[in-house]
Amino acid sequence: MAEIAQITLDGPAASGKSSAAKGLAKELNAYFVNTGDMYRALTSVVLEQGIDPETQIEEIEKILPEQDIRYVSGDGLDLLLHINGSLAQASQVRSPEVAAKVSLVAKIPAVRQWLVKRQREAAGLGLIVMEGRDIGTVVFPEAKFKFYVSASPMVRAQRRLAQEGEVSAGATVEKVAAEIAKRDEMDMNRAVSPLKPAEDAVMVDTSDLSLEEVISSMAKLVREGLNRG
Ligand code: DC
Q1: pLDDT band at residue 4, thresholds of 50, 70 and 90?
Q2: Of 202, 165, 167, which is closest to residue 183 (Cα–Cα)?
Q3: Mean of the pLDDT values across residues 160-177?
Q4: Which class is 4-223 in CATH?
Q5: Where are the domains of the chain?
Q6: Does the pTM exceed 0.90?
Q7: CA-CA distance, 215 to 158, in Å (whole number)?
């Protein structure tokens, strides 16, 4: 059987990697998997159950076996995130409350192990574009195509501010930049699977590029690689 190539995109919050990964998947007729939403989904369950991710790590570990967080096939190449049998709602996974706590949940080793297993299962679907923080380094270290997507802190804050729902009412660009910096700090300095570029990743700075430019440059590299075999 021919080996299926995985395409990984890692990078910090609001770097443009989700839009780029989604567009790239469409361009290549591949599945798109957003792993940040899986960490967010679990965080929403933790908060709904009244568990404090700062102090009740054992409680989180205890509820893991009862949870079912997975992508299921939708229409064509669309994958739908389900949380315990129900379709995940944007208001659940993209709320400011979840955004504020997700890095605390994501640094728990048992949580990472649990979700990485589910992420690897998605590789069975076919050609996938998977985005997150540790996809090229931990989830698919053998992936054929790896990108590390970044952008300047100000550009990232402006992009996040333009996204509805995730920032609190009355947020300023300075406040959003500070929140993003705090999350980066936690994601880059955690003991397990910290955010860092894989050694063989192609670095993509999206600060001065349009989304279309980012997608077409990545698609070109992937197509050339696939044609080389
Ligand atoms: O991509 P995002 O901002 O939606 O991710 C939410 C959080 O989940 C982020 O703060 C770090 C964590 N995360 C992670 O640790 N590993 C991943 N593969 C994806 C996300």
Answers
A1: low
A2: 167
A3: 80
A4: alpha beta
A5: 4-223
A6: yes
A7: 20
